Amino acid sequence: MSKITDIYIVGDNADLSATLKEQTDESFQLHFLTAADLKKADAQLILILNNGETAIDDAQTALSEHPSSSIICVSDEENFSLLRSLNQLGITDFYVLPGEELIFMERLDAVAKEAGIKNELESESSFKRGGGKIFAFYSGSGGTGKSIISTTFAQTLKLESTAKVLFIDLNLHYGGAETFLGMDSSRSIIDLLPVMEELGEHHIRNVSEKEEHSDLNVLVSPRDAELSEKITEDFIVKLLRASKRHYDFIVVDLPVWMDERTLAVLEEAHRIYYLMNLDTVAIRVLKSVENLFQRLGVITQDRFEFVINYKAKENELTKKDLERFASYPVASEIRKDRKNVQAYVNQGEPLRKKSQEKKLPPFSKDIHKWVHSMLK
Ligand SMILES: Nc1ncnc2c1ncn2[C@@H]1O[C@H](COP(=O)(O)OP(=O)(O)OP(=O)(O)O)[C@@H](O)[C@H]1O
Ligand SMILES: [Mg+2]
Question: Phi then psi for 46, rounded to 5 degrees?
Answer without folding.
Answer: -120, 135
